[in-house]
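#lab-general

N.A. 3:47 PM
ok so I finally got the sequence cleaned up, no stray characters, all 258 residues accounted for. can someone with queue access submit it? mine expired

B.Y. 3:52 PM
send it over

N.A. 3:53 PM
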Amino acid sequence: MARTVVVTGSTSGIGLGIAEGFAKAGDNLVINGFGSEEAINQAVESVGSLGEGSVIYHPADMTKPDEIADLIATADQTFGGLDVLVNNAGVQHVSAIEDFPPEKWDQIIAINLTSSFHTIHNAVPLMKKAGHGRIINLVSAHGLVASPFKSAYVAAKHGMMGLTKTVALELARHNITVNAICPGYVLTPLVQKQIPDTAKARGLTEEQVKTDVLLAAQPTKQFVTVEQIAAAALYLASDAASQVTGTHISIDGGWTAQ
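B.Y. 4:20 PM
back already:
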């Protein structure tokens, strides 16, 4: 039977890859995120072509609690419940703490942390009513370790780890699991676009940028793929993972082993 899956921030990158993974499994999807109307329509069509399930788009702004509540309500009204919630929406800003714009701090905490409180807050009653559910938080290696100049992002991701564990404990007797996936660097289109400029700025080849700059922290010197992250999400959503809760799966090429 097709599950209903909500993936925030899923019009591109990691979120889109996760949505594609669930679509291939035959599930119904609610995708969400920013982009041009053309790009969004293309994402809906592309995801919808991968399986037997239905795909709809919801434009909820992850800084607005009312819109987030409507995202979850729309999934319930359209598909009759919510089985899997994947919190993936995120933004980044890199700056020294004394130069960090306060409005950027507020935006990152809102989108990368607080939005997940609101999605979970609205999803849990539906999952409790159904007697089952899976909540998967896309965190990052930065939920476990820090890097300089990313104060808001690292704070938000550490907060996500705390949220994951707390909600898992609250829901442990309700057949609802809550887990985190902590990827290292993923070669998304966003990262790919930065490579030529970084190479030029630093006087390096594009290959050197990949291994010596972007992958400096990853012992394997290889990027994580969106397909690998999607596979982890599908596992956490499966019956096989019913006793996996309140923990994380690191997919980081050995980064956090150091």
